[in-house]
Specification:
By secondary structure, the chain is of the alpha+beta class. The chain has a domain at 28-85. 13% of the residues lie in helices and 26% in strands. The chain is built from one helix and three strands; from the N terminus they run αβββ. It has one helix at residues 2-12; strands spanning 34-38, 46-54, 61-68. Strands 1-2-3 form a three-stranded antiparallel beta sheet, with no helix packed on it. Strand 2 (46-54) and strand 3 form a beta hairpin. The protein is elongated, with a radius of gyration of 20 Å. The N and C termini lie far apart (49 Å). The structure holds iron/sulfur cluster. Iron/sulfur cluster is lined by residues 25, 28, 31, 33-34, 50, 52-53, 64, 77-78, 81-83.
Amino acid sequence: MATQIRKEILMARKPFEKVKVAFEFETCKECPKVRSERTPQAGCADDYYCTEARDITTGKHRMVMGYVEYSSDENPIPEWCPRRV
Ligand code: SF4
């Protein structure tokens, strides 16, 4: 019975609207546009790259933080961040 009611509610629901949402971050680590990978030849440190910006010389995603092992290694959001408002 409960399953039937849930199905009816879902079918009666209108499609979701697209909504633009703004977030506030302290570092790129919290941004959904960041990607991370292990720092080469490092034990447990990570490098972080912005997937919204490209390095002019290499064409690869631009690094926002390198060799991050602890939160004290993190950098603030760069001035060139394409998501800044
Ligand atoms: S630079 Fe801006 S868009 Fe890129 S990862 Fe950092 S906060 Fe996100």
